[in-house]
Write a structure and sequence with these properties.
With 403 residues, the protein is an alpha/beta fold. 43% of the residues lie in helices and 14% in strands.
Length: 403
């Protein structure tokens, strides 16, 4: 006799959690008379003395010699309401701080030794790599401490530091390990930008071009028209570019319906499949913004090949990027793998895996609009490399795909 089939039951769990965080634009955040940081710490009006740990980018500490005592004095003046659990901790700056787990373990260990709880604050002061690493560490302790980001580069202030992602490089891939963890607040201090190297100063403008090309033709025009001022380190032009770019990024995160990137389309990664691969090929010696600039130029010409972008728009993109002092070429673009194929093409496979198995690449439809494609032909990539190589005045490539 057959056994009766058991009925299977299920219960669908569903809930949503709202997230909110302010992004401030200020100057001299740790000056004694600047109320922003203290106001942010108290924005939930909790009756408690808040405890803080501050992690400081070594490059920022070196460029601003009095910053550590300034931070300590800021907290000393407000000791009734906020206190440092330990002196500010200096960590390496640049991509090396997020290559692997070493510094994550260091931050986690310090949080543990200071006995921070989930209502305590971790403050990350530095470029995007430091924010990524410290943000990741703070997100995995007690399943998430309150993170205050203080971005100190243009790229971090208008892109990397204002979103909801944290991560480190692992397994030979950029941001292979990470979390989605919105910050408690972002505090953009324009005064930090004055001491940046030119590479760091202009690197964030690549991200501004990225979002302008696919979303806002008027902002693109501003960037092209302001290229000379941006290249000459005009503080006012940069402040406006940072603000507009940051707002466009924040609007996209809020309005596109996929802030934690469950889908496969990621418009804000326009130009990034090649950029991420170039970074790893260089051992992260090329700046992220510079790699993104090259990736934008590459994908823009692919859009021309597909008939989606007029060549005049492509030339405006090239002209705007180069007028700002950003590159549109790197010799690694023509580097070959053991089988003679372009090594940069591996970036498509890695990007596909990062997206969850389905490749979706954002390409521009002229200036200010975009489309999504699910395949990129190697011959289109090779043709784009040939055009960029010629624009950069480089000799002809030798790989078969670039002939």
């Amino acid at each position: 006799m057959d056994k009766p089939v058991k009925q299977l039951t299920s219960y669908i769990q569903s809930f949503s959690v709202p997230f909110e965080y302010p992004v401030y634009f200020t100057q001299h955040l740790f000056a004694a008379d600047n109320p922003v940081l203290a106001g942010v710490a108290d924005r939930l009006k909790e009756a408690r003395r808040h405890r803080f740990l501050v992690f400081l980018d070594a490059g920022v500490a070196a460029a601003h010699g009095g910053l550590i005592p300034c931070i300590e004095q800021y907290f000393d003046a407000r000791s009734t309401d906020m206190t440092l659990a330990a002196p500010p901790e200096v960590v390496p700056g640049g991509e090396r701080v997020k290559n692997g787990w070493e510094h994550v373990h260091r931050v986690v260990g310090m949080i543990n030794r200071c006995r921070l709880d989930r209502q305590s604050y971790v403050v990350a002061v530095g470029g995007g790599a430091v924010l990524d690493m410290v943000g990741f560490a703070s997100a995995i302790v007690h399943r998430g401490l309150r993170l205050l980001r203080v971005p100190t580069t243009t790229l971090a202030q208008n892109d990397a530091g204002i979103g909801v992602k944290n991560g480190i490089n692992d397994q030979g891939q950029k941001n292979y390990v990470g979390t989605f963890a919105p910050p408690f607040a972002v505090l953009n201090d324009a005064a930090f930008l004055a001491t940046l190297s030119f590479e760091q100063w202009i690197g964030g403008i690549a991200e501004a071009f990225k979002v302008a090309i696919i979303k806002d033709a008027q902002f693109f025009n501003y960037l092209v028209e302001s290229a000379g001022a941006l290249k000459s380190r005009d503080a006012g032009a940069m402040a406006e570019a940072v603000r507009q770019c940051a707002v466009l990024h924040l609007d996209h995160i809020r309005d596109n319906g996929d802030p934690f990137e469950f889908g496969s389309a990621r418009p804000l990664d326009f130009g990034h499949w090649a950029a991420h691969k170039l970074e790893s090929m260089s051992g992260y010696t090329i700046g992220h913004g510079q790699a993104v600039s090259i990736g934008i130029a590459l994908d823009a010409y692919i859009a021309v090949r597909q008939g989606w972008m007029p060549e005049d728009d492509f030339l405006r993109i090239l002209g705007g990027l180069t007028a700002c002092g950003l590159p549109v070429w790197d010799d690694r673009l023509r580097q070959q793998g053991p089988d003679g194929s372009l090594e940069i093409l591996d970036g498509l496979a890695q990007f596909r895996e990062h997206l969850g198995g389905d490749l979706t690449i954002t390409l521009p439809l002229g200036i200010g609009r975009k489309t999504e494609v699910n395949a990129v032909a190697p011959e289109d990539v090779a043709a784009a490399i040939g055009v960029l190589q010629k624009a950069a005045g480089r000799p002809s490539a030798q790989c078969s795909e670039c002939r």
